[in-house]
Design a protein that fits this description.
alpha/beta, Rossmann fold, ATP-binding, P-loop_NTPase, DNA binding, FtsK domain-containing protein
């Protein structure tokens, strides 16, 4: 209310004056004349000596002159201001002597005011023009210096190209990179049929002749027409620096490109995958997995991409993008669960076949169901958007699947090729990885034709890195140019093959991206979802993702196994430490187990012992008859003993299989079958779902 009242008062009292503002030509003249008139009137009335006014005027003129010299005002300005003080002081002295209230005094004062205003305006304009000229002169000097630097660079590289390549070029322009990592030369080739390829082939010699640092290159690429060439010269080796994935997790789009790394000029390089597939090769230790995570990060940020991942190596490429969300480790801003960073993950052969079959059905259904959309858009490419998202299939070591001699794996490879062949127009593309750029990987015509976005991570590795096969037609590419982890060569239809490096993406960044992009992920369109059916709709069911949980050790907060966490659990070292010459480890373990159980509980009678030799069980005694089933299978008995020994914490199939693998070679699938049978007959109880599922013996199961 107080603010409103003040505003109304100010509005009613007229315009607000800014008393802190400086004087202009008019206000300055008014201030000077009214001040002189006031001093003259007061001095005449009080009989003040007139010399005082002249002394004050002289002091003012001197002070303004000194101040003007300090800020480097022009002589015209200094003279105008000093004259204004002296003229004003002279009139005041005369008016105090002869009287300020005469027509002569008032007329002369008005004339002086007009003169002061006009002179001030003139000097202000002069100072502004003088300042602009000074700035322009500085800019001309900078431009001249830069032009001189560019002329020196142009002359130097004209001589170098002539000396190394035997070509005389004419430099049209030199552009310094904003990142400060180098420059580009735009040159015109001489007549006679010379091409940029001749300069590109001498990249190594040009770099050596220019004495560039290790990791820096001089690479040639086509100019605006075939008679021009662009030479990019790197002077700072940005590839040896490790740069983390950009912290800006803002939205991306398939149509504007997905950043996969940065070039030697420190600028991002984009991959456009609406119609193209991608092929990534890199030996072990080259940073290929890290690059895959960077690619998945870009896909997660896009609002028109759904990512499906196949990794038959325990699903390692996709698990960091799935488990934190499925396990409830990450929450949204409102406390609600977040969606996984990828839309589907297959880590087994069966799940991978299911995913690929689904992709084929989706592609075919889209061809039939979106004919009206294609007709309205007058195109044969399905318009991709958040409503009809593109499906990106990321297949780790997918190129090896295509070249595998195994009959079953070949079926998977045939399905991958079918997706690549039929699904381009309908918005399903693939990203395949491989361990090397070898003939077996690149022999498939479909891969060479469709995978126009290619990356070769070298890490200094020379074996299996045939860059001429990976980037046919490109010259001057050498593995030793990219000896750093995560560095290599990348080529796209929009950008020729050249050095690049992938960002280092940290595990905590993956979690941050999952949380930041959860609401951004599109959902599968209705037509595609209908074609995908239950195989897609139930992809996150507990039985479908059980393998994800079983990949990791069942450990608690202290890192111990379930059997070790049991408060009264047994020491099962007998499985490994006891000699096998006389008594098997299983029998010795069971004997010790029964002894401890008998010491605490009354047990049920052994059917193999006569009734008169068996102590009477106490009411509600523990029935261990399950231990006596399948007496011909020691592994079965040992597995049940491990389940019972796990106590209230319970255990999982993987933990039991690992404990029995050394002595019995028991597989996880066998243990899963036993656990299901025990759950069915009531011997065990399953607690939890998905990644939190545990099996607990009924003796330790919580009361319902």
């Amino acid at each position: 209310m107080a603010t409103t009242a003040t505003a109304k008062q100010n509005a009613s009292s007229g315009p607000v004056l800014d008393w802190a503002a400086g004087h202009g030509p008019v206000t300055g003249a008014l201030s000077a004349t009214t001040g002189a008139f006031a001093v003259a009137t007061t001095g005449a009335a009080t009989s003040t000596p007139p010399g005082w006014a002249l002394a004050v005027g002289a002091a003012g003129a001197l002070g303004h002159t000194i101040a003007g010299l300090r800020i480097r005002n022009s002589g015209r300005t200094l003279a105008t201001r000093a004259a204004s003080w002296l003229v004003g002081a002279g009139w005041t002295t005369w008016a105090m002597t002869h009287g300020p209230l005469t027509w002569a005094a008032l007329g002369s004062l008005a004339t002086i005011g007009v003169g002061i205003g006009a002179a001030t305006r003139s000097t202000n304009l002069y100072e502004e023009a003088r300042e602009e000229e000074t700035i322009a002169a500085e800019q001309r000097q900078i431009a001249a210096e830069l032009s001189a630097e560019r002329r020196a660079i142009a002359a130097e590289w004209i001589d170098r190209i002539q000396r190394v390549c035997s070509i005389t070029v004419r430099v049209v322009g030199v552009e310094m990179w904003e990142t400060g990592a180098g420059f580009s030369i735009d040159a015109e080739l001489p007549p006679g049929g010379a091409t940029y390829a001749k300069i590109a082939a001498e990249s190594a010699r040009l770099s050596a002749d220019a004495r560039l640092p290790h990791g820096c290159t001089a690479t040639a690429s086509p100019g605006i027409h075939q008679g021009r060439v662009i030479i990019d010269v790197t002077t700072v080796n940005v590839l040896e620096q490790e740069r983390t994935y950009p912290a800006d997790y803002g939205p991306l789009s398939l149509h504007t490109g997905i950043p996969w790394g940065y070039r030697t000029n420190a600028e991002q390089i984009l991959a456009y995958l609406r119609e193209q597939c991608a092929l990534i090769v890199g030996p072990t230790g080259s940073g290929k997995t890290n690059l895959v995570h960077s690619i998945l990060a870009g896909f997660a940020r896009a609002g028109d991409i759904l990512t499906w991942v196949i990794d038959l190596n325990a699903g390692s490429a996709g698990l960091p993008w799935v488990l934190p969300a499925l396990g409830g480790e990450i929450k949204g801003e409102d406390g609600k669960p977040v969606r996984p960073g990828i839309d589907w993950l297959a880590g087994t052969f069966d799940e991978a076949m299911t995913m690929l079959d689904t992709a084929v059905r989706v592609a075919k259904q889209r061809k039939m169901g979106y004919q009206d959309v294609l007709a309205r858009a007058n195109t044969d490419l399905l318009p991709i958007s958040a409503k009809i998202p593109q499906i990106m299939l990321v297949i780790d070591e997918g190129a090896e699947i295509l070249a595998s001699p195994d009959r079953q794996v070949r079926k998977l490879g045939e399905k991958i090729l079918e997706v690549i062949r039929i699904a381009r127009a309908m918005g399903i593309r693939t990203v395949l990885t491989a361990l090397g750029a070898t003939g077996s990987v690149l022999s498939n015509l479909m891969i060479r034709r469709e995978a126009k976005v290619r990356i070769a991570l070298t890490g200094g590795e020379t074996e299996g890195m045939d860059l001429s096969k990976m980037f046919p037609g490109s010259r001057g590419l050498r593995v030793d140019q990219a000896p750093y982890k995560g560095a290599g060569f990348m080529g796209t239809p929009e950008s020729p093959a050249a050095l690049f490096k992938a960002w280092r993406i940290l595990p905590n960044q993956i979690r941050e991206i999952i949380a930041a992009t959860s609401d951004r992920h599109p959902v599968l369109d209705d037509i595609s979802a209908k074609a995908a059916g239950p195989a897609y709709a139930r992809r996150w069911d507990a039985d479908r993702i059980a393998w994800m949980h079983d990949q990791a050790p069942e450990t608690g907060e202290t890192g111990t196994t379930a059997a070790e966490r049991a408060g009264t659990g047994l020491n099962l070292s007998a499985l490994q430490d006891q000699p096998t010459t006389q008594v098997s480890p299983e029998d010795e373990m069971l004997r010790m187990f029964r002894e401890q159980i008998d010491a605490q509980f009354a047990t049920a009678p052994d059917p193999r012992i006569p009734a008169d030799d068996t102590p009477s069980p106490a009411a509600g005694g523990l029935n261990l008859s399950a231990l006596r089933g399948e007496q011909d299978n020691p592994a079965h008995r040992a597995a049940l003993a491990l389940l019972l020994a796990a106590g209230r914490e319970g255990t999982g199939a993987s933990a039991i299989a690992r404990a029995l693998a050394k002595e019995h070679g028991t597989t996880r699938q066998t243990v899963v079958g036993w656990l299901k049978a025990w759950v069915k007959d009531g011997t065990a109880v399953r607690i939890g779902e998905g990644t939190k599922a545990r099996y607990v013996h009924r003796q330790h199961a919580p009361e319902s």
